[in-house]
Amino acid sequence: MTIDGRLSTGPGVSSQVLFGFYGDELSRWFHQRRAESDLIMVGAGTVRVDNPQLTVRHVDGPSPVRVVPTISGDLPTEATIFTDGLPTILIVPEALPEQTIRSLTANRPAVQVLRAGESRVDFDKTFAMLAGLGYSTLMVEGGSRLLAELFAADLIDRLIVKHIPIVTGSRDAPTFLSAAGSFPLSRWNLARCNSIGGVAVTEYSKAGV
Ligand SMILES: NC(=O)c1ccc[n+]([C@@H]2O[C@H](COP(=O)([O-])OP(=O)(O)OC[C@H]3O[C@@H](n4cnc5c(N)ncnc54)[C@H](OP(=O)(O)O)[C@@H]3O)[C@@H](O)[C@H]2O)c1
Known about the structure:
single chain; alpha/beta; Dihydrofolate Reductase, subunit A; 3-stranded antiparallel sheet; binds NADP nicotinamide-adenine-dinucleotide phosphate
């Protein structure tokens, strides 16, 4: 996030513009983190705005399997996560019509769908199902609403913040967290603080974990 706590420079603007404010050293560092994770998750909003690849490219190592929760199923069928042939798991609620799912998965054997929750995605169930498939580590890369849901449900045990050294001054750019309702206070312990390629990277662990 930026110094003023934003995940991009404006509403609807891809967070990939932030890449221009840091260099290869930080890219290598966080791609190494990706390579160490079994799974990587972003919300459907991030797929719509950023069209990310979510692969490991700046270091040698395996790409994590992509996981995208969506309630609406409103995702661009030409998004890279559907067309590059690498594995993607969509997490959808029971209420999502089969036809919507078919429109995203037809002729795409690398795209798998799991149902968790009735009308919303239930993340406790999601994580239990993913663990049942043999996955044990999951890294979430945003965006604001997904992070807020996971913090509120107390499902995050480690936090890494890259403080991109810019101030957007934007009133409407997505914030680090965007919670729909009240939000429980949670206490975090500073585990590490490094400067990587001129960017402060802070790591926190959940107090008591
Ligand atoms: N700087 C960074 O590192 C970084 C990283 C990622 C994203 N971003 C930025 O963040 C912005 C996107 O954030 P966002 O908040 O709009 O979207 P988001 O958090 O990426 O995705 C929210 C979507 O996730 C889906 N979802 C599924 N189950 C959910 C649940 N139980 N609760 C909440 N959401 C659930 C919903 O999709 P449906 O609407 O399909 O139902 C919801 O609209 C973009 O501007 C992107 O550039 C920045």
